[in-house]
């Protein structure tokens, strides 16, 4: 529980990167849902499995975003940036999908923070591995 509180504490983060993570997380959620909505209206008979598509798209998009944010930050607070990007995406998905399906809101919404957690963890590990290999190369 203490780690979760540490990850959700925005103190000690780079302000510009913190705001960027929230804006990009919300923008990804909105853009992806708008794209899926456009495709469903353009090809109504050919689109199936929309719930899985929404879940995977949100998860993979936020994972990629959190990976790059955590790698870019290099301040050991990458998990904070990833989780806040995922929470912003969850808020946007919840607001957009609320009128359509209450079953889809938690399924798609929770993919944002889960993707942020996974992507930020990978980005922090990747950055840590690069530091170690650079340190070994200097010796």
Count up the helices: 6
CA radius of gyration = 17 Å
Given as residue ranges, the uncertain stretches (5+ residues, pLDDT < 50) are none
Helix percentage: over 70%
What's the total number of strands? 0
Number of domains: 1
By secondary-structure content and strand pairing, the structural class works out as mainly alpha
Characterise this structure.
There is one protein chain. Helix 3 (50-73) runs antiparallel to helix 4. The N and C termini lie far apart (39 Å). 35% of the residues are buried. This protein is mostly helical. The mean pLDDT is 86. It has helices spanning 2-8, 15-42, 50-73, 78-97, 104-109, 111-138. The chain has one domain (14-138). The chain has six helices and no strands. 81% of the residues lie in helices and 0% in strands.
Summarize the structure.
With 139 residues, this protein is mainly α. The protein has 6 helices and no strands.
Key terms:
single chain, 139 residues, mainly alpha, 6 helices, 81% helix
